[in-house]
Design goal:
Elements (H helix, E strand, L loop, with lengths): L1 H22 L33 H11 L63 H10 L8 H9 L4 H9 L6 H14 L6 H6 L7 H11 L28 E2 L15 H4 L8 E2 L21 H9 L9 H4 L11 H12 L17
Antiparallel strand pairs: 1-2
């Protein structure tokens, strides 16, 4: 009898302990704010990531939230994605982006992907030294988001979502413009485009059509008027490498000296030799990032190719175009122009436009 009572007491004691333990709250899981973000970039070279702002899981998450956060604008109706839409490879299909006051900007919005492979400042004229610097300028621009940094910080600080997320990303709930810019920099650096048909072709997983192959030849072959049949369009001179750009600024022959109204890089450097020079953009996803050029003057790729067939001369025209002028330009045939357009379309990364890692978290 005693054994039964002892056993029963033991069973009740164990049940009581289990019930007490089950009623306790789950222990708080500490978040590792330094957990590295796994950046995928295929066959690209190692990216240029700032030592003081490595990509972390929580930092990229916060940057993504801010990228889609409308509180960054004065009327709480506009966010970064308003002018950098994922469906169009993080670009704007308006010739000039429209800000919160309904006013147009001064230039066509550049695409925001593969920023981690950029080494020569940001914006068409390079007025922002780092990507984090670039991230804050649209917020304060009267033609864009028309807000102040203190105003944004106050709104974010009073929200339920952001103080905890800043703590996860940076160790405390303090919200500063520097932390905002670093988070945005991390997210934009995480947006990578490397999964086009051309990438598959390089990997041996796709075959180019006859017209695409002709376009590839023209794109990568130098202009040689002495041998017309072997001459190319020499596009790779400015749009080379894995990202199809050269991290330089160039006058690509849009206007003559009298017709230049936007002096471009010269406004930043105060150097006359930089007049009408603009950042050479990536040609990846160019099929989706219309309209084209810093002022969005061309609506189609056909217009772009026609422009490069015979550019306009000016005092700062890039040297690569100078040799073409005495010969009347590239003298591309209609078939050649169509082939170049066909090849450019193989650079489209459709997976980028739907990748959930880059879409709105809200």
């Amino acid at each position: 009898m005693k054994k039964i009572l002892v056993y029963t007491a033991f069973v009740f004691a164990m049940i009581s302990i289990l019930m007490i333990e089950s009623c306790k709250k789950d222990p708080k899981v500490e978040v590792d704010m330094d957990m590295p973000y796994n950046l995928e970039f295929g066959a690209f070279p190692q990216p240029l990531i700032a030592i003081d702002n490595p990509l972390t899981v929580e930092g990229v998450k916060l940057g993504r939230m801010l990228f889609y956060e409308k509180m960054l604008s004065s009327n709480n109706q506009m966010n970064c994605a308003s002018c950098h839409n994922q469906k169009t490879a993080f670009s704007d299909t308006n010739r000039l982006s429209i800000g919160v006051l309904g006013l147009p900007g001064k230039r066509q919005a550049m695409s925001a992907f593969n920023m981690a492979w950029n080494s020569n400042e940001f914006f068409w004229d390079g007025r922002a030294h780092l990507l984090r610097d670039q991230s804050l300028k649209p917020i304060q621009d009267s033609l864009e988001m028309h807000e102040t940094l203190p105003g944004v910080i106050a709104k974010l600080q009073s929200s339920n979502n952001y103080p905890p997320q800043f703590k996860k990303a940076f160790g405390s709930e303090e919200i500063t413009s520097e932390r905002m810019s670093k988070a945005l920099e991390q997210f934009m650096n995480s947006i990578v485009s490397y999964r086009s048909k051309y990438d598959d072709y390089l990997a041996g997983a796709a075959t180019l059509t006859q017209i695409e192959e002709r376009g590839r030849f023209l794109f990568f072959t130098e202009f040689n008027p002495a041998f017309p049949n072997a001459s190319g369009a020499d596009c790779q001179h400015c749009h080379g490498g894995s990202n199809f750009e050269n991290d330089k600024y160039a006058n690509n022959g849009l206007d003559n000296d009298a017709g230049i109204s936007d002096i471009g890089r010269q406004k930043v450097t105060n150097n006359n030799s930089d007049k009408a020079k603009f950042k050479v953009p990536s040609l990846r996803n160019v099929e989706l990032t219309f309209p084209y050029m810093h002022d969005g003057r061309f609506k189609t790729l056909e217009e772009v190719v026609e422009h490069y067939n015979l550019v306009t001369n000016s005092s700062t025209l890039d040297g690569s175009f100078q040799q073409q002028l005495p010969n009347g330009g590239l003298k591309l045939t209609a078939n050649d122009k169509a082939a170049l357009v066909a090849f450019l379309k193989t650079l489209t990364d459709y997976k980028l436009t739907t990748d959930s890692r880059y879409s709105s978290p809200f």
